[in-house]
Amino acid sequence: MNDLKRDRIKERLETKMELFEKVEKLRQKANVSYEEAKEALDKANGDLLDAMIMLEKEGKTEAPKTESYSTDYESSKKYPAVIDECHNKKKSEKESINDWWITKKIKELWKKGNENFLIIERNEETVLNIPVWVFILILLLAWHVSLVVVIVSLFLGCHYRFEGKADLEKVNNAARAVEDAATTVKEEFTKNNE
Predict the structure, then answer these.
(1) Conformation bin of residue 132: beta by default, left when phi > 0, alpha when psi is -120 to 50
(2) Count of CB atoms situated within 10 Å of the CB of 126
(3) What is the DSSP-derived secondary structure letter of residue 166?
């Protein structure tokens, strides 16, 4: 009889522990007092789900918040609109144009053309002082006229030199070599006509 009594006590204890665990779980989930959770479980014959529904109906706990999901990208704040994405892509493509090699070279040439000057002198007096980009523009637009003017001016004793921020020693050496060649031709021409 002793074993039978012990088994019944054990069974009641297990039932009480099971009930206590359910009450504790319901109390935590529903955010109610121990007494409210126990009363709801008693009314629901120990069923946790029914006890939770009962508490919600009585207004003792809030109903779970519902969430909805959609495949519609416009209703979701997580994904940018396709139009915005395309606009940003075009904008970044335009910005990358500025990184092109040719664009960089043109900017560099423009800067150097404004920092450096062509100086034409005759009898140690400055006849003309222009930015290099103006000289290049004249060469491009009227190369045949400017070539004749340069040759004639060399025969008339004009000296060409470049000044500015860039290292222009090689260019000035080339200009002196052309001047020397023009002077030599001029001297030979004068000797032959005398």
Answers:
(1) alpha
(2) 9
(3) S
